[in-house]
């Protein structure tokens, strides 16, 4: 996505799948240093495991990161 890798980690496909199922998002500093906290906030909200709390497309489009033009790096 924004860093070139997905926010789910695992040593193999099974571990990555398990991380996705559990909703274990990771943003390692080395790989996500150029990704703003606002962008990471939007990712967390769109990838929320709890469907009742997960952002809809409409909510995502109203997120501050989108409204500011999707700047990757924090100023």
TrEMBL record:
One of its GO terms (molecular function) is protein serine/threonine kinase activity. It comes from the Eukaryota. Signal peptide: none annotated. Residues 1-66 form the Protein kinase domain. The keyword Coiled coil does not apply. SUPFAM superfamilies: Protein kinase-like (PK-like) (SSF56112). Keywords: ATP-binding, Kinase, Nucleotide-binding, Serine/threonine-protein kinase, Transferase. InterPro entries: CDPK_Ser/Thr_kinases, Kinase-like_dom_sf, Prot_kinase_dom. PANTHER family: SERINE/THREONINE-PROTEIN KINASE. Belongs to the protein kinase superfamily. CAMK Ser/Thr protein kinase family. CaMK subfamily. This is Protein kinase domain-containing protein. It comes from Lupinus albus.
